[in-house]
Model the fold of this input.
Amino acid sequence: MPRRRLRSPTYADVTPYEPPFRFMVRSRSGPGKHLVDIADFDGNGACGCTDFQVNLAPLLHRGLSAQDAFAADLADLRDYHIFEEDCLRCWHICQARGFSLALAIEKELSTQKKNPAAARKPAPRA
Ligand SMILES: [Zn+2]
Done:
């Protein structure tokens, strides 16, 4: 099975705007950027792009969860989605969430390097 290449493994399209939840994410279709708030809609996230505003936000405003929307065939998985829970997230929200997680991991590892006594134990290897 061919492996799918990551579009933005370094999250170069994401810029912190109002941390920890707001980011600017470069548009894939034009020169602009979109404001993303990954905490909006109870953690689903919200974006200013047309895809989110036209296709996804109306489902969230109706109170549908991603699981409900997916089960009712109202939202599909896209090539950048990993889980069904992502189906009400546009590409920009997914990028911002990935960037946020990468930052959190990097910050925690940095903290642990400064305090080795609090560092995690290595996972057992088979
Ligand atoms: Zn978007």
In short: The chain has four helices and four strands. Residues 14-118 form one domain. The beta strands are 14-18, 22-26, 33-37, 46-47.
